[in-house]
Amino acid sequence: MAVNQQDVVGSQQGELKRTMTFFPALSTVMGTVIGAGVFFKAASVAAVTGSTSLHMLSWFLGGLISVCAGLTGAELAAAIPETGGMLRYIERAYGEFWSFLLGWAQVVIYFPANVAALSIIFATQFKNLFGMSDATIIPIAIVAAASIMLINFLGSKAGGMFQSITLVCKLVPLALIVIFGLLRQGDVSVSLFPVQAGPAVGGFAPALGAGLLATMFAYDGWIHVGNIAGELKNPARDLPRAIAGGILGIMVVYLLVQFAFLRTLDMSALAGNENAAMDVAGKIFGGMGGKLVTIGILISVYGTINGYTMTGMRLPYTMGLEKQLPFSDKLVKLNKNHVPYIAGILELVIAIGMMMVGGFDMLTDMLVFVIWIFYTLVFIAVIKLRKTEPDLVRPYKVPLYPIIPIIAIIGGIFILVMTLINQFQLAMVGIVITALGIPFYLYLKKKYK
User: Rounded to whole angstroms, how far apart are CA atoms 29 and 242?
Assistant: First the structure.
Protein backbone atom coordinates (compact mmCIF):
# COMPACT_ATOMS: atom_id res chain seq x y z
CA MET A 1 0.00 0.00 0.00
CA ALA A 2 1.57 3.26 -1.09
CA VAL A 3 1.52 6.41 0.98
CA ASN A 4 -1.37 8.59 -0.18
CA GLN A 5 -0.10 11.29 -2.56
CA GLN A 6 -1.75 14.57 -1.65
CA ASP A 7 -0.66 18.15 -1.16
CA VAL A 8 0.33 17.01 2.28
CA VAL A 9 1.41 13.52 3.18
CA GLY A 10 -0.19 12.78 6.51
CA SER A 11 -0.90 10.32 9.27
CA GLN A 12 -3.00 10.34 12.41
CA GLN A 13 0.02 11.72 14.27
CA GLY A 14 0.71 14.68 11.94
CA GLU A 15 1.65 15.75 8.47
CA LEU A 16 4.66 15.99 6.21
CA LYS A 17 4.36 19.34 4.48
CA ARG A 18 5.25 20.10 0.86
CA THR A 19 7.71 22.96 1.38
CA MET A 20 10.81 21.96 -0.65
CA THR A 21 11.59 23.43 -4.07
CA PHE A 22 14.02 22.50 -6.87
CA PHE A 23 17.23 23.94 -5.46
CA PRO A 24 17.00 22.12 -2.10
CA ALA A 25 16.27 18.93 -4.09
CA LEU A 26 19.30 19.52 -6.34
CA SER A 27 21.31 20.34 -3.23
CA THR A 28 20.18 17.07 -1.65
CA VAL A 29 21.38 15.11 -4.71
CA MET A 30 24.72 16.93 -5.02
CA GLY A 31 25.15 17.47 -1.31
CA THR A 32 24.47 13.84 -0.44
CA VAL A 33 26.76 12.58 -3.21
CA ILE A 34 29.65 15.04 -2.94
CA GLY A 35 31.30 14.51 0.39
CA ALA A 36 33.71 12.00 1.84
CA GLY A 37 33.85 9.80 -1.25
CA VAL A 38 35.56 12.17 -3.68
CA PHE A 39 38.27 12.98 -1.14
CA PHE A 40 38.75 9.74 0.79
CA LYS A 41 37.84 6.92 -1.61
CA ALA A 42 40.65 8.07 -3.90
CA ALA A 43 43.07 6.23 -1.61
CA SER A 44 41.05 3.00 -1.87
CA VAL A 45 40.73 3.21 -5.66
CA ALA A 46 44.45 3.84 -6.02
CA ALA A 47 45.25 0.88 -3.78
CA VAL A 48 43.12 -1.63 -5.71
CA THR A 49 43.88 -0.41 -9.25
CA GLY A 50 47.60 0.23 -8.88
CA SER A 51 47.90 2.57 -11.88
CA THR A 52 46.87 6.10 -12.80
CA SER A 53 45.18 4.93 -16.00
CA LEU A 54 42.92 2.36 -14.32
CA HIS A 55 42.33 4.73 -11.43
CA MET A 56 40.90 7.36 -13.80
CA LEU A 57 39.00 4.75 -15.83
CA SER A 58 37.32 3.51 -12.64
CA TRP A 59 36.10 7.02 -11.81
CA PHE A 60 34.95 7.60 -15.40
CA LEU A 61 33.04 4.31 -15.63
CA GLY A 62 31.61 4.85 -12.16
CA GLY A 63 30.28 8.19 -13.34
CA LEU A 64 28.96 6.74 -16.60
CA ILE A 65 27.10 3.98 -14.76
CA SER A 66 25.76 6.53 -12.27
CA VAL A 67 24.53 8.85 -15.03
CA CYS A 68 22.71 5.94 -16.70
CA ALA A 69 21.41 4.84 -13.31
CA GLY A 70 20.19 8.33 -12.49
CA LEU A 71 18.50 8.84 -15.86
CA THR A 72 16.83 5.43 -15.46
CA GLY A 73 15.74 5.85 -11.86
CA ALA A 74 14.40 9.35 -12.56
CA GLU A 75 11.61 7.84 -14.71
CA LEU A 76 10.17 6.05 -11.70
CA ALA A 77 10.88 8.97 -9.39
CA ALA A 78 8.75 11.26 -11.60
CA ALA A 79 6.03 8.68 -12.27
CA ILE A 80 5.75 7.60 -8.61
CA PRO A 81 6.62 10.78 -6.68
CA GLU A 82 5.76 9.54 -3.19
CA THR A 83 7.52 9.74 0.14
CA GLY A 84 9.56 6.57 0.50
CA GLY A 85 11.22 6.87 -2.90
CA MET A 86 12.74 3.57 -3.97
CA LEU A 87 10.43 1.65 -1.60
CA ARG A 88 7.51 2.72 -3.76
CA TYR A 89 9.21 1.79 -7.05
CA ILE A 90 10.13 -1.70 -5.83
CA GLU A 91 6.66 -2.28 -4.38
CA ARG A 92 4.99 -1.23 -7.61
CA ALA A 93 7.11 -3.61 -9.68
CA TYR A 94 7.69 -6.61 -7.40
CA GLY A 95 5.23 -6.46 -4.51
CA GLU A 96 5.26 -5.83 -0.78
CA PHE A 97 7.85 -8.46 0.18
CA TRP A 98 10.68 -6.99 -1.91
CA SER A 99 9.68 -3.48 -0.87
CA PHE A 100 9.89 -4.51 2.77
CA LEU A 101 13.26 -6.18 2.26
CA LEU A 102 14.64 -3.02 0.67
CA GLY A 103 13.23 -0.91 3.49
CA TRP A 104 14.69 -3.24 6.09
CA ALA A 105 18.12 -3.15 4.40
CA GLN A 106 18.04 0.63 4.26
CA VAL A 107 16.90 1.00 7.87
CA VAL A 108 19.39 -1.44 9.44
CA ILE A 109 22.32 -1.23 6.99
CA TYR A 110 22.35 1.45 4.33
CA PHE A 111 21.52 4.74 6.03
CA PRO A 112 23.06 3.96 9.46
CA ALA A 113 26.23 2.64 7.78
CA ASN A 114 26.50 5.81 5.71
CA VAL A 115 26.07 8.04 8.74
CA ALA A 116 28.52 5.89 10.74
CA ALA A 117 31.19 5.76 8.02
CA LEU A 118 30.95 9.48 7.24
CA SER A 119 31.05 10.38 10.93
CA ILE A 120 34.15 8.20 11.40
CA ILE A 121 35.96 9.84 8.48
CA PHE A 122 34.90 13.29 9.73
CA ALA A 123 36.24 12.49 13.19
CA THR A 124 39.46 11.01 11.78
CA GLN A 125 40.21 14.11 9.73
CA PHE A 126 39.23 16.38 12.62
CA LYS A 127 41.63 14.44 14.86
CA ASN A 128 44.45 14.66 12.31
CA LEU A 129 43.90 18.36 11.67
CA PHE A 130 44.11 19.31 15.34
CA GLY A 131 46.65 16.67 16.42
CA MET A 132 44.34 14.80 18.79
CA SER A 133 44.65 11.19 19.95
CA ASP A 134 42.98 8.20 18.28
CA ALA A 135 40.81 7.77 21.39
CA THR A 136 38.82 10.87 20.37
CA ILE A 137 37.62 9.47 17.02
CA ILE A 138 34.48 7.67 18.21
CA PRO A 139 33.33 10.45 20.61
CA ILE A 140 33.78 13.07 17.87
CA ALA A 141 31.93 10.86 15.39
CA ILE A 142 29.00 10.47 17.79
CA VAL A 143 28.83 14.23 18.41
CA ALA A 144 28.87 14.91 14.64
CA ALA A 145 26.02 12.49 13.91
CA ALA A 146 23.93 13.61 16.90
CA SER A 147 24.31 17.31 16.11
CA ILE A 148 23.13 16.77 12.53
CA MET A 149 20.10 14.86 13.85
CA LEU A 150 19.21 17.78 16.14
CA ILE A 151 19.36 20.20 13.19
CA ASN A 152 16.95 18.01 11.25
CA PHE A 153 14.54 17.88 14.20
CA LEU A 154 13.88 21.56 13.42
CA GLY A 155 12.00 20.52 10.25
CA SER A 156 12.52 19.54 6.61
CA LYS A 157 12.85 23.20 5.60
CA ALA A 158 15.71 23.67 8.09
CA GLY A 159 17.38 20.46 6.91
CA GLY A 160 17.01 21.49 3.27
CA MET A 161 18.36 24.99 3.96
CA PHE A 162 21.34 23.56 5.86
CA GLN A 163 21.98 21.22 2.92
CA SER A 164 21.96 24.15 0.50
CA ILE A 165 24.40 26.13 2.66
CA THR A 166 26.83 23.22 3.07
CA LEU A 167 26.66 22.53 -0.69
CA VAL A 168 27.96 26.02 -1.38
CA CYS A 169 30.63 25.60 1.32
CA LYS A 170 31.77 22.22 0.01
CA LEU A 171 32.13 23.49 -3.56
CA VAL A 172 34.80 25.95 -2.41
CA PRO A 173 37.53 23.40 -1.52
CA LEU A 174 36.59 21.35 -4.59
CA ALA A 175 36.99 24.40 -6.83
CA LEU A 176 40.25 25.42 -5.17
CA ILE A 177 41.78 21.94 -5.52
CA VAL A 178 40.68 21.64 -9.15
CA ILE A 179 41.75 25.13 -10.26
CA PHE A 180 45.06 25.41 -8.41
CA GLY A 181 45.83 21.70 -8.67
CA LEU A 182 45.52 21.81 -12.46
CA LEU A 183 47.17 25.20 -13.01
CA ARG A 184 50.27 24.56 -10.91
CA GLN A 185 53.22 22.60 -12.23
CA GLY A 186 52.41 18.99 -11.45
CA ASP A 187 54.75 17.03 -9.19
CA VAL A 188 53.82 13.76 -10.90
CA SER A 189 53.39 12.75 -14.53
CA VAL A 190 49.93 11.23 -15.06
CA SER A 191 49.72 8.49 -17.70
CA LEU A 192 46.21 7.72 -18.96
CA PHE A 193 47.16 5.30 -21.74
CA PRO A 194 47.51 2.41 -22.12
CA VAL A 195 44.87 1.48 -19.55
CA GLN A 196 46.26 -1.32 -17.42
CA ALA A 197 46.24 -2.57 -13.85
CA GLY A 198 49.23 -2.03 -11.61
CA PRO A 199 51.77 -4.86 -11.25
CA ALA A 200 50.85 -5.54 -7.59
CA VAL A 201 47.09 -6.11 -8.12
CA GLY A 202 45.42 -9.33 -9.21
CA GLY A 203 44.58 -8.72 -12.86
CA PHE A 204 42.64 -6.12 -14.85
CA ALA A 205 39.03 -7.31 -14.28
CA PRO A 206 39.29 -7.84 -10.50
CA ALA A 207 41.12 -4.50 -10.14
CA LEU A 208 38.48 -2.69 -12.19
CA GLY A 209 35.70 -4.38 -10.20
CA ALA A 210 37.25 -3.35 -6.88
CA GLY A 211 37.87 0.16 -8.21
CA LEU A 212 34.27 0.51 -9.34
CA LEU A 213 32.98 -0.73 -5.98
CA ALA A 214 34.99 2.00 -4.25
CA THR A 215 33.88 4.75 -6.64
CA MET A 216 30.24 3.72 -6.30
CA PHE A 217 30.27 4.95 -2.71
CA ALA A 218 31.57 8.31 -3.92
CA TYR A 219 28.79 8.52 -6.54
CA ASP A 220 26.08 7.10 -4.29
CA GLY A 221 23.14 9.05 -2.92
CA TRP A 222 21.41 10.38 -6.07
CA ILE A 223 18.28 8.21 -5.84
CA HIS A 224 17.41 9.10 -2.27
CA VAL A 225 16.00 12.50 -3.11
CA GLY A 226 12.96 10.35 -4.01
CA ASN A 227 12.49 9.76 -0.29
CA ILE A 228 11.47 13.40 0.14
CA ALA A 229 9.23 13.53 -2.94
CA GLY A 230 6.24 13.89 -0.64
CA GLU A 231 7.69 17.17 0.61
CA LEU A 232 8.52 18.65 -2.82
CA LYS A 233 6.18 21.29 -4.20
CA ASN A 234 6.49 19.98 -7.78
CA PRO A 235 8.02 16.48 -7.67
CA ALA A 236 7.15 15.43 -11.24
CA ARG A 237 9.13 18.35 -12.66
CA ASP A 238 11.88 18.77 -10.07
CA LEU A 239 12.91 15.17 -9.30
CA PRO A 240 14.31 14.16 -12.71
CA ARG A 241 15.96 17.56 -13.18
CA ALA A 242 17.62 17.30 -9.79
CA ILE A 243 18.81 13.72 -10.27
CA ALA A 244 20.07 13.90 -13.86
CA GLY A 245 21.54 17.39 -13.66
CA GLY A 246 23.16 16.69 -10.33
CA ILE A 247 24.98 13.52 -11.39
CA LEU A 248 26.33 14.98 -14.64
CA GLY A 249 27.85 17.85 -12.71
CA ILE A 250 29.25 15.50 -10.10
CA MET A 251 30.90 13.27 -12.70
CA VAL A 252 32.83 16.19 -14.22
CA VAL A 253 33.90 17.46 -10.80
CA TYR A 254 35.10 14.01 -9.68
CA LEU A 255 37.26 13.46 -12.76
CA LEU A 256 38.90 16.87 -12.36
CA VAL A 257 39.52 16.32 -8.64
CA GLN A 258 41.07 12.89 -9.21
CA PHE A 259 43.33 14.26 -11.95
CA ALA A 260 44.48 17.02 -9.59
CA PHE A 261 45.16 14.41 -6.89
CA LEU A 262 47.22 12.29 -9.28
CA ARG A 263 49.27 15.30 -10.43
CA THR A 264 50.10 16.09 -6.79
CA LEU A 265 50.76 12.66 -5.20
CA ASP A 266 52.22 9.60 -6.89
CA MET A 267 50.33 6.29 -6.64
CA SER A 268 52.45 4.97 -3.80
CA ALA A 269 51.72 8.08 -1.71
CA LEU A 270 48.00 8.06 -2.60
CA ALA A 271 47.20 4.35 -2.22
CA GLY A 272 45.68 3.57 1.17
CA ASN A 273 46.54 7.02 2.57
CA GLU A 274 43.69 8.20 4.82
CA ASN A 275 45.33 11.64 4.96
CA ALA A 276 45.59 11.96 1.16
CA ALA A 277 43.19 14.91 0.93
CA MET A 278 45.08 16.81 3.62
CA ASP A 279 48.42 15.97 1.98
CA VAL A 280 47.20 17.21 -1.42
CA ALA A 281 45.82 20.43 0.09
CA GLY A 282 49.11 20.99 1.94
CA LYS A 283 51.22 20.53 -1.19
CA ILE A 284 49.03 22.85 -3.28
CA PHE A 285 48.40 25.63 -0.77
CA GLY A 286 51.12 25.25 1.85
CA GLY A 287 50.68 24.71 5.59
CA MET A 288 48.01 27.23 6.61
CA GLY A 289 46.24 27.17 3.24
CA GLY A 290 46.13 23.39 3.36
CA LYS A 291 44.53 23.50 6.81
CA LEU A 292 41.86 25.97 5.62
CA VAL A 293 41.01 23.76 2.64
CA THR A 294 40.89 20.75 4.96
CA ILE A 295 38.35 22.61 7.12
CA GLY A 296 36.30 23.11 3.96
CA ILE A 297 36.51 19.38 3.31
CA LEU A 298 35.26 18.72 6.86
CA ILE A 299 32.26 20.96 6.15
CA SER A 300 31.70 18.94 2.98
CA VAL A 301 31.62 15.68 4.93
CA TYR A 302 29.37 17.23 7.58
CA GLY A 303 26.91 18.28 4.89
CA THR A 304 26.94 14.77 3.44
CA ILE A 305 26.01 13.33 6.83
CA ASN A 306 23.09 15.78 6.80
CA GLY A 307 21.88 14.50 3.42
CA TYR A 308 21.75 10.88 4.58
CA THR A 309 20.23 11.84 7.94
CA MET A 310 17.49 13.97 6.38
CA THR A 311 16.40 11.33 3.89
CA GLY A 312 17.15 8.28 6.03
CA MET A 313 14.88 9.10 8.97
CA ARG A 314 11.86 9.17 6.68
CA LEU A 315 12.09 5.48 5.76
CA PRO A 316 11.25 4.04 9.19
CA TYR A 317 8.41 6.59 9.25
CA THR A 318 7.05 5.40 5.91
CA MET A 319 7.36 1.74 6.86
CA GLY A 320 5.74 2.49 10.21
CA LEU A 321 2.70 3.95 8.43
CA GLU A 322 2.28 0.57 6.74
CA LYS A 323 2.90 -1.45 9.94
CA GLN A 324 6.04 -3.02 8.45
CA LEU A 325 8.38 -2.60 11.42
CA PRO A 326 8.26 -3.48 15.11
CA PHE A 327 6.93 -0.56 17.19
CA SER A 328 5.43 1.00 14.07
CA ASP A 329 3.04 3.09 16.16
CA LYS A 330 6.04 4.84 17.70
CA LEU A 331 7.99 5.34 14.47
CA VAL A 332 5.19 7.37 12.83
CA LYS A 333 5.11 10.00 15.55
CA LEU A 334 6.08 13.49 14.44
CA ASN A 335 7.34 16.35 16.57
CA LYS A 336 5.90 19.86 16.46
CA ASN A 337 8.05 20.58 13.37
CA HIS A 338 6.48 17.61 11.50
CA VAL A 339 9.66 15.52 11.68
CA PRO A 340 9.62 11.75 12.47
CA TYR A 341 11.89 12.15 15.48
CA ILE A 342 11.61 8.61 16.90
CA ALA A 343 12.54 7.16 13.49
CA GLY A 344 15.52 9.52 13.49
CA ILE A 345 16.61 8.40 16.95
CA LEU A 346 16.41 4.75 15.83
CA GLU A 347 18.72 5.43 12.88
CA LEU A 348 21.15 7.32 15.11
CA VAL A 349 21.35 4.48 17.64
CA ILE A 350 22.07 1.91 14.90
CA ALA A 351 24.71 4.23 13.40
CA ILE A 352 26.47 4.62 16.75
CA GLY A 353 26.55 0.82 17.11
CA MET A 354 28.18 0.56 13.68
CA MET A 355 30.77 3.17 14.61
CA MET A 356 31.91 0.83 17.37
CA VAL A 357 32.51 -2.19 15.12
CA GLY A 358 33.39 -1.01 11.59
CA GLY A 359 35.86 1.18 9.76
CA PHE A 360 35.20 3.53 6.86
CA ASP A 361 36.08 1.18 4.00
CA MET A 362 34.40 -1.90 5.48
CA LEU A 363 31.13 -0.08 6.16
CA THR A 364 31.05 1.67 2.78
CA ASP A 365 31.85 -1.46 0.76
CA MET A 366 29.12 -3.45 2.53
CA LEU A 367 26.44 -0.79 2.11
CA VAL A 368 27.31 -0.30 -1.58
CA PHE A 369 26.99 -4.03 -2.28
CA VAL A 370 23.63 -4.33 -0.52
CA ILE A 371 22.07 -1.23 -2.05
CA TRP A 372 23.20 -2.12 -5.57
CA ILE A 373 21.16 -5.33 -5.38
CA PHE A 374 18.08 -3.13 -5.14
CA TYR A 375 19.34 -0.45 -7.53
CA THR A 376 19.64 -3.14 -10.19
CA LEU A 377 16.07 -4.25 -9.43
CA VAL A 378 14.95 -0.64 -9.92
CA PHE A 379 16.59 -0.48 -13.35
CA ILE A 380 14.87 -3.73 -14.35
CA ALA A 381 11.59 -2.35 -12.94
CA VAL A 382 11.66 0.53 -15.45
CA ILE A 383 11.55 -2.00 -18.31
CA LYS A 384 9.05 -4.23 -16.47
CA LEU A 385 6.58 -1.42 -15.74
CA ARG A 386 6.80 -0.16 -19.34
CA LYS A 387 5.23 -3.52 -20.26
CA THR A 388 2.88 -4.14 -17.33
CA GLU A 389 1.70 -0.54 -16.84
CA PRO A 390 1.93 1.20 -20.22
CA ASP A 391 -0.74 3.73 -19.15
CA LEU A 392 1.18 4.92 -16.09
CA VAL A 393 1.67 8.67 -16.42
CA ARG A 394 5.39 9.27 -16.99
CA PRO A 395 6.20 13.01 -16.94
CA TYR A 396 9.78 12.01 -17.76
CA LYS A 397 10.99 9.03 -19.80
CA VAL A 398 14.51 7.63 -20.02
CA PRO A 399 16.25 8.90 -23.15
CA LEU A 400 17.60 6.32 -25.63
CA TYR A 401 15.38 3.65 -24.09
CA PRO A 402 16.21 0.74 -23.58
CA ILE A 403 19.95 1.36 -24.12
CA ILE A 404 20.51 3.49 -21.00
CA PRO A 405 18.57 1.15 -18.64
CA ILE A 406 20.48 -1.83 -20.07
CA ILE A 407 23.83 -0.10 -19.42
CA ALA A 408 22.70 0.57 -15.85
CA ILE A 409 21.65 -3.07 -15.39
CA ILE A 410 24.93 -4.44 -16.79
CA GLY A 411 26.89 -2.04 -14.59
CA GLY A 412 24.95 -3.14 -11.51
CA ILE A 413 25.44 -6.85 -12.22
CA PHE A 414 29.17 -6.33 -12.79
CA ILE A 415 29.55 -4.54 -9.45
CA LEU A 416 27.67 -7.30 -7.58
CA VAL A 417 29.52 -10.19 -9.21
CA MET A 418 32.94 -8.64 -8.69
CA THR A 419 32.15 -7.92 -5.04
CA LEU A 420 31.17 -11.56 -4.50
CA ILE A 421 34.46 -12.61 -6.10
CA ASN A 422 36.73 -10.09 -4.38
CA GLN A 423 35.02 -9.66 -0.98
CA PHE A 424 32.86 -12.74 -0.50
CA GLN A 425 32.75 -12.62 3.30
CA LEU A 426 31.73 -8.95 3.39
CA ALA A 427 29.06 -9.55 0.74
CA MET A 428 27.63 -12.50 2.70
CA VAL A 429 27.42 -10.43 5.88
CA GLY A 430 25.32 -7.89 3.99
CA ILE A 431 23.09 -10.59 2.53
CA VAL A 432 22.57 -12.28 5.93
CA ILE A 433 21.67 -9.01 7.71
CA THR A 434 19.22 -8.23 4.91
CA ALA A 435 17.69 -11.72 5.11
CA LEU A 436 17.18 -11.32 8.87
CA GLY A 437 14.29 -9.05 8.00
CA ILE A 438 12.27 -11.93 6.53
CA PRO A 439 11.05 -13.32 9.90
CA PHE A 440 9.89 -9.83 10.89
CA TYR A 441 8.01 -9.50 7.61
CA LEU A 442 6.22 -12.81 8.07
CA TYR A 443 5.36 -12.08 11.71
CA LEU A 444 4.04 -8.57 11.07
CA LYS A 445 2.13 -9.64 7.97
CA LYS A 446 0.38 -12.35 10.03
CA LYS A 447 -0.21 -9.96 12.94
CA TYR A 448 -1.86 -7.25 10.82
CA LYS A 449 -3.56 -9.57 8.32
Answer: 7
